[in-house]
Design brief:
five-stranded antiparallel beta sheet; four-stranded mixed beta sheet; about 190 residues; 2 helices; 11 strands; alpha+beta
Amino acid sequence: MKIRIYATVAAIALLPLTACSNNDGGGHADVEPKKTAADKPADDADKQKAAASKTEMQVGDTFRYHDGIKATVTSIEQVTKFSEYDSKPSPDEIAFRINIKFDNGSKQPVDLDDFSIIAEGATKGGEAAVTTWDAGSAEITGRLAAGQTAAKTEDGVLEKKYGTSMLVTLQRTTDDGTVATDDPHWTGSIQ
């Protein structure tokens, strides 16, 4: 009696397995491998995360944040003309301007005051001193509406002993004071 009960339980337990197979009757079954996360095609959110994960770039490359904000360091130029009120660099310093473009691809306005730049020598170290050159300056401030683009600048001086290759880091802090993502970095030369 116990053998019949065990046989019945085993048959019932195996019934779902035989119903799912695609047996051709000749002992050959067509079994599809189980789908894994790696087999799943990437959706838009995955693509955005992949795009946002690239943080080491060259001047001219665009970094995209997870919320759709894009930032591009378009150039680093040497500043040679100064207004009468500018504090001119010393002979052992190079004056520069970092040009950066923000593109608000999100559905919300963005506060550009949440962004700040750190500029350093890329080959021999040395942090640049921040300043503002009056002519052509467009500080990273204000609000950028959804769907809008703005060109901004960050000015500074770097000691000549650190060379002309620069590392530009863009930091973003949210309203509650937390860092929004890994900081993107651009490398390029003062032109």
